[in-house]
Amino acid sequence: MIFRDRQDAARLLANRLTRYRDDSSALILALPRGGVPVGYTLSEALRIPLDVFITRKIGAPDNPEYAIGAVAEDGYVYLNPEAQAVLDAYSSSMEFLEEAIRVQKEEIARRQDLYRQGRPLPKLTDRTVLLVDDGVATGSTFLASIEALRARDVKRLVAAVPVGPPETLRLIGAKVDELVVLSRPELFVAVGNYYIDFRQVEDTEVVRYLAKGAAMPHDRVCGARA
């Protein structure tokens, strides 16, 4: 399955998530940046609030694009099963990991200030959370987010992603109450390969989507921010 853009993928996801429309306990948490356009379109379609959950990947020492783990905005650190083997190949692996975590925590703090402008993360206890991204590859950031959200006692955790490799989706599905996915290609290459338009999402766009979401009338978006 090939999507025109993130909004197209979100509309297809919304068709699979109609049971959550107008659910006053529900909240969409999108992983920035790419998950935010998906989350906003879902928020419009389902009439439930939108916010972000900021998680940053930890890249391998010799390949920053290859995720060996991730750091969630509450400080939770997730390492992939193969991360230790990757790190063991480097004599300064612990120093590398500590520095990588520090750098990502600084970037998370910057984004918290920029995206939420001083607002705290909404209260999540006893809420239904739809965790959204534009796709998953290794799943590090998504899995770190799941673990962090579980620690906040959410009532129900729903993973909603347009596309991902079967093995990653199996890992995610085992950790959430419900997994909604549109495509599971066996020969998965990269998330962007399944979009015609996969342009980079900038910080300014994230801020704009969140502002538009916050301005939705209450008769269109149910459930007040906690």
Question: What is this structure's SSE topology?
Answer:
Elements: H1 6-16, E1 26-30, H2 35-46, E2 50-52, E3 55-60, E4 63-72, E5 77-79, H3 83-88, H4 93-116, E6 128-132, H5 140-150, E7 156-163, H6 166-173, E8 178-183, H7 203-214
Parallel strand pairs: 1-2, 1-6, 6-7, 7-8
Antiparallel strand pairs: 3-4, 4-5
Helix pairs in contact: 1-2, 2-7, 4-7
* SSE order, one letter for each helix or strand: HEHEEEEHHEHEHEH
Structurally, the number of domains stands at 2
Low-confidence stretches: 218-226
The top-level CATH class of the largest domain is Alpha Beta
Largest sheet: 5 strands, parallel
Structure description:
It is a single chain. 37% of the residues lie in helices and 20% in strands. By secondary structure, it is of the alpha/beta class. It folds into 2 domains: 6-53 and 121-214, Rossmann fold (3-Layer(aba) Sandwich); 57-114, 2-Layer Sandwich (Ybab, Chain: A), CATH 3.30.1310.20. The chain has a 5-stranded parallel β-sheet with strand order 2-1-6-7-8, sandwiched between helices.
